[in-house]
Design a protein that fits this description.
48% helix, single chain, elongated
Length: 198
């Protein structure tokens, strides 16, 4: 009689698949070690192997802490070992994150975004005229850039300026001699400076 193949789909689902089935087997074996000293040594060895699987993360300050948390999670928080970090509560790691509330304010021009609306509100309250005019030019150019990115279309300066006036309820107007930056210039990537060797 032929031996049936052992497929991963037929095995028990892994808690943390990124560590693989062999690491999970090692963790399962830990709880069977009766001697506490040997169990602690084995736990440190497993942590070392888990760390070697992600060598690029070793320099991160809480990396070791994360590994010990993962070990606790993979053992279903049943391991009795001397961890260098406090073992997290099962409820803490498995609880769902809190719901992030969405902004209820309706954004009239989605392609400009909420941040532009907030900047315009702040700019309306600036009293220094020179500073206000400079900020208006920055906002207008940023709006044009956003318009080009999201609409993938030709951005007519008159449309941008009309939108700015409308969004500021007529409080922000560009100076008469002002011209928005050229579309190509707005979308071009900044060139990297070449440094000459002395």
């Amino acid at each position: 009689m032929e031996k049936a193949f052992d497929y991963n789909t037929q095995r028990k689902k892994l808690v943390l698949p990124e560590y693989g089935r062999n690491i999970q087997k090692m963790v399962n074996h830990l709880s069977t070690i009766e001697d506490r000293t040997e169990r602690n040594k084995a736990a440190k060895t497993i942590i070392s192997v888990m760390g070697n699987m992600n060598p690029h993360l070793r320099d991160i300050s809480d990396f070791k802490h994360k590994l010990w948390d993962h070990l606790a999670l993979m053992s279903d928080f049943t391991l009795d070992i001397d961890s260098p970090f406090p073992t997290p509560a099962k409820e803490t790691l498995l609880s769902k994150p809190k719901h992030v509330p969405y902004i209820k304010n309706r954004i009239k021009y989605l392609h400009y975004g909420r941040v532009v609306e907030l900047i315009i509100e702040k700019a309306c309250n600036i009293e220094d005229q020179a500073e206000k005019e400079y900020l208006i030019t920055l906002i207008a150019n940023h709006m044009k850039k956003s318009y080009l990115i999201w609409n993938l279309n030709v951005a007519h300066d008159s449309v941008i300026l009309k939108d700015l006036e409308e969004m500021s309820h007529g409080k922000l107007k560009v100076p008469d001699d002002f011209q928005l930056t050229n579309s190509k210039e707005l979308l071009s990537k900044p060139r990297k400076k070449k440094y000459r060797k002395k």
